[in-house]
Amino acid sequence: MDGVHKVLHSGWYILGSSVKAFEDDFAEYCGTEYCVGVANGLDALELIIHGYDIGPGDEVIVPSNTYIASILSISANGAVPVLVEPDLQTFNLDPAKIEAHITPNTKAILVVHLYGQACDMNPILEIANRYNLKVIEDCAQSHGALYGDKRVGNLGDAAAFSFYPGKNLGALGDGGAITTNDEELYNRLMALRNYGSHKKYENIYKGYNSRLDELQAPILSEKLKWLDQDNEKRREIASYYSDHILNSEVILPIVQHTSKSHVWHLFVIRVQKRNHFMEYMNKNGVQTMIHYPIPPHKQEAYREWSDLAFPISEQIHAEVVSLPISPVMEMGEVLRVVEVINEYRTN
Ligand SMILES: *Cc1c(COP(=O)(O)O)cnc(C)c1O
């Protein structure tokens, strides 16, 4: 690829013109003023929280059924993650449950557009506005999803993206980005990702080393051109599954807003006899996965939460199964998945 060759021959491998070009491309795509390339999605979240001075004594509301990185980013800053249950139908944070968890120490709501579906943002933004809370988006699974006429990444105060290879926009290694319209935060983040320095050897913050790799940037700029098309392919597969899977043992995922508000990072169904179902699928040549098998409050890393109960999350974690979905899937493979599922019986 030309862009990769350009970097190789430039001799400039850290924070060069390719990272800057990708940041401009991605900000434009998301509709935000600014984008900051960072090393990965977890760092993107952690840097936003740090950038807003959220730390010890502060609380951040976060869904109880998210991928662990969303929660780790809060803990890493010394702040307290306050877990709130999702909606069983959408798997996303339930706006109606947020307010009961707000205290004088609450500083932000970290929303996760899980599995690729944009959260129900209007009621969340309304609550945040009323209590003067920051809204941070975890967009690691939702590149390109629309809420109304805006893209995720442009719905709150700041947003974190991951470019881990398996994401809807993936690099050939680790990568991440932050999008925001907040100029002050942007300026801080530009220093925070680079040792807290705007000017070499002058450190105004206790910063990080978390930079988007220069070699990944041209790859991401190129792949960004295909993102909408890839997401459309995912939508076609998802709607085929939704229209043709017919089995009373299987609960299909729902789309809450418009078809464009979901980019189907994962197609997640719920099945009561999960092990039995997954074994059956495997025997019939269809590989399924679980996102995620253990709820965050049952993780060893958060053993202090082991006595807490989050029944909806626990049900989700016990029942979810991810079906194959990717822009490179052939239609024949999609038909086969449907056929196998429709023949599934529990006895
Ligand atoms: C992948 C992911 C992350 C972390 O991204 P990395 O680039 O792997 O650090 C954070 N949040 C969610 C919801 C993710 O799926």
Q: Any chance you could write out the topology, listing elements then pairs?
A:
Layout: H1 2-10, H2 17-30, E1 34-38, H3 41-51, E2 59-63, H4 68-76, E3 80-84, E4 106-112, H5 121-131, E5 134-138, E6 146-147, E7 150-151, E8 158-162, E9 176-180, H6 183-192, E10 197-199, E11 202-203, H7 216-224, H8 227-244, E12 250-251, E13 267-271, H9 274-283, H10 311-319, E14 320-323, H11 331-342
Parallel strand pairs: 2-3, 2-4, 4-5, 5-8
Antiparallel strand pairs: 1-9, 6-7, 8-9, 10-11, 12-13, 13-14
The structure holds pyridoxal-5'-phosphate (PLP).
Describe this structure in words.
The mean pLDDT is 97. With 347 residues, the protein is of the alpha/beta class. The strands form 4 sheets. A 7-stranded mixed sheet has the order 1-9-8-5-4-2-3, sandwiched between helices. The chain has a 3-stranded antiparallel sheet with strand order 12-13-14. Helix 2 runs parallel beside helix 7. It has helices spanning 2-10, 17-30, 41-51, 68-76, 121-131, 183-192, 216-224, 227-244, 274-283, 311-319, 331-342; strands at residues 34-38, 59-63, 80-84, 106-112, 134-138, 146-147, 150-151, 158-162, 176-180, 197-199, 202-203, 250-251, 267-271, 320-323. It contains 11 helices and 14 strands. The structure holds pyridoxal-5'-phosphate (PLP). Pyridoxal-5'-phosphate binds next to helix 3 and helix 4.
Largest sheet descriptor: 7 strands, mixed
Distance between the termini: 53 Å
Helix content: 25-40%
Fraction of residues in β-strands: 15-25%
Rg of Cα set? 20 Å
- Strand tally is 14
